Amino acid sequence: MSDHAATNSACIMIVEDEPKLAALLADYLHVGGYQTSIIANGLDAIPAIKKSVPDLVLLDLMLPGKNGIDICRELRSFSHVPVIMVTAKVEEIDRLLGLQIGADDYICKPFSPREVVARVQAILRRAGYASDKPMPPAGLLMDESKHEATLNGQTLDLTPVEFRLLKTLCDNEGRVLSRDQLMNKVYPDYRVVTDRTVDTHIKNLRRKLDHASPDRELIHSIYGLGYRFEK
Length: 231
Fold this sequence. Notes:
- With 231 residues, this protein is α/β, with parallel strands linked by helices.
- It has helices at residues 19-31, 42-51, 68-75, 90-98, 113-126, 160-171, 179-186, 195-212; strands at residues 11-15, 35-39, 56-60, 83-87, 105-108, 140-143, 148-151, 154-156, 176-177, 219-222, 226-229.
- The chain has a five-stranded parallel sheet with strand order 2-1-3-4-5, sandwiched between helices.
- Helix 1 packs across helix 5 and helix 2 runs parallel beside helix 3.
- The chain is elongated.
């Protein structure tokens, strides 16, 4: 048990070579009340763990330098820190866990980051830890009074125009809205703007949504008609 327990903020080491996925997991774990560190190369995992023992390790199976199986086996030779294996190879990890490589749990790609946080919470709870922060709320939440929007617990840094655009799309979920309809809602003063202006706002909005929810496309382009929002 590491010194992080004293602060009631467990430290999770994320051993993952996909930067976007690692950052997404770190964001969700931060919202869940955890500290994180990220290791991208398998060769760096064991030295990093020995230098600063985490309270739990999220360990990808396929890593450059050294794979997750070898890391887990070596880790178990000197530590009982909980390990959750992350893999796209369901059959292989099932077999390897059957051979007692020492992992406490595993989760399969593609996965929901909320599910990962729930697994982390469950294992740490069994180990005697408890985060005092709730799980990040799922889905899109919009507060018109504050002009704020969050997606899966992450605040979206939206401009006023982007907020109105997203609110319009969200309020008409499942319906195709033309560029003219969107422009009338986004620009209530009916100023003259081009279709390209709307497309640019949509592009920027998609980029911000994708950062918070990279595994799901929320705004769909309907060729020749406009855009449709689907949760």
